[in-house]
């Protein structure tokens, strides 16, 4: 039964990825110097995620549209990033945006909060 539920969950996840790829539209365009500065700023960011999680897909879609090439870290079972997420953020829940700035590390959970934060800062 558990195998069947996992299979259906993964199938739905990959279906969402496929629909997202087909419908996600175009990336935000910026002047090359501006984009370069943003890319540099984004080296302080990483997104802990699963590939087939709908909340992660929603977050990746927003990142794509805003043209924010943030490093993605796979936090699935058995991965080294899963342990980092647990130790740093305090729980295994994705998506989670890690922001390392001014000598401090912030772990931001909740897809809606992450998307609002990125929109306010980079749109
Ligand atoms: N309200 C959260 C929901 C996130 C969520 O439920 N994520 C699931 C994956 S789709 C999760 O991390 N579950 C923990 C686990 O699978 O270990 C959001 O919008 O980010």
UniProtKB/TrEMBL annotation:
Give the InterPro entries listed for this entry: Glutathione_S-Trfase_N (IPR004045), Thioredoxin-like_sf (IPR036249)
Name the Pfam families on file: GST_N_3 (PF13417)
Q: GST N-terminal domain location, by residue?
A: 43-123
The cross-references to PANTHER family, in alphabetical order and at most eight, read:
THIOREDOXIN FAMILY PROTEIN (PTHR45288)
Q: In its UniProt entry, what is this protein called?
A: Glutaredoxin 2
């Amino acid at each position: 039964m558990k195998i069947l539920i996992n299979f259906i969950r993964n199938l739905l996840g990959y279906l969402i990825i496929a629909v997202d790829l087909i419908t996600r539209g175009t990336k935000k365009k910026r002047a090359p110097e501006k984009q370069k500065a943003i890319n540099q700023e984004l080296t302080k960011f990483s997104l802990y995620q699963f590939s087939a999680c709908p909340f992660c897909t929603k977050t990746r879609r927003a990142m794509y549209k805003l043209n924010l090439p943030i490093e993605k870290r796979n936090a699935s079972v058995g991965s080294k990033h899963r342990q980092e997420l647990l130790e740093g953020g305090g729980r295994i829940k994705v998506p989670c945006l890690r922001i390392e700035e001014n000598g401090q590390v912030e772990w931001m959970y909740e897809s809606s909060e992450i998307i609002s934060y990125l929109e306010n800062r980079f749109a």
